[in-house]
Amino acid sequence: MRGGVSMSRQSAIPCILMRGGTSKGPYFVTGDLPPDPAARDRVLLAAMGSPDARQIDGLGGADPLTSKVAMVNRSAREGIDVDYLFAQVSVADAVVDTSPSCGNVLAGVGPFAIERGMVPVTGEETLVTIYNTNTDSRIEAVVRTDGRGVVYDGDTAIDGVPGTAAPVRLNFMDIVGSKTGRLLPTGRLTETIEGVEVTLIDVAVPMMIFRAQDLGKTGHESPAELDADRDFFALMEAMRRIAGERMGLGDVAGRVIPKVAMLAAPRGQGHVAARYFVPHKTHGAFAVTGALCVSSCAMLAGSVSDGLARRPEGDDRLILIEHPAGLIDVALKTRGGGANMEIVSGGVIRTARKLMQGEVFVPGHLLDGGGA
């Protein structure tokens, strides 16, 4: 006993630990967690081992990409199979942020829903219609299945993940204005923050996007090189807070949106090169929601992507983004151009794998309504 709280009893919560895309974390049935958000967040912090830089006392992997949680339940919405709530659990701080979504973790939601019996198998492919409560948007997940359930083995490779697995196709609907209600929250294609030209855009996730060269970077640095430049991050954070205010998100200190990306001309087969920030660390690969937003910006004439991005012709395009681990591809459907460009839909191919199924244990008093 320490601090006046008995730690002698542990409570078990069922979960499946899954890799979704280039991220990893526990997936829970929403009803297995406390309904009160504050109590739920205390449970998630305990389950992940936060706050602690090593997350030694929980499931977290001491990295933002492996400190993520999915909460899934059957949906009462017409035409929707399951509701999905994502939580980014801070590694070093006692913060659980449900304001953003995560498209990589989303890749595991369809398989998880099938595993938990929320959606029946329909053949060699099973369509799972997901409502993302973080962003009030719909996503179709096409999952490889057979008579025994989810098929995880396959020959699809995604950069940032070793080996191959079965593909999970994600088709994103209603992605424009995920938090702000508009493609361009300020109505401008570009504007200046702290002397740097930026595009403030909201497709799947609100973002501040700038040219790497404008902050003295090439845009092809490794995550370690960028993370070591704390002055760079300090300036970027100051800009991000101003961007949040301008986008109508209020004071974004301590929150993970808007996210940030910097662009550069591609060096390989990509249409644009980018580095994505989460936001206080460089992503080792690329977020799916971030890829939808960055690809939209790359195709948006008059944005900060002018002179950097190669723009394929037509309204139905496959956009390749170069990132630290390779490439991520986005199938983007648009109408029109410039400030009037409409984003119809975006699709990506990800993979997922079930890593462990069982129970995670947390201090019992957290489920009994007690505090931390």
Automatic annotation (TrEMBL):
UniProt GO MF annotations: isomerase activity
InterPro entries, A to Z: OMA_tautomer-like, PrpF-like
Membrane recorded as keyword: no
Pfam families per the UniProt record, alphabetical: PrpF
Origin: domain of life: Bacteria
E.C. designation(s): 5.3.2.8
Keywords from the named record: Isomerase
Presence of keyword Ribonucleoprotein: no
NCBIfam families attached to this UniProt entry: OMA_tautomer (NF033377)
Family to which the UniProt record says this protein belongs: Belongs to the PrpF family.
Protein name: 4-oxalomesaconate tautomerase
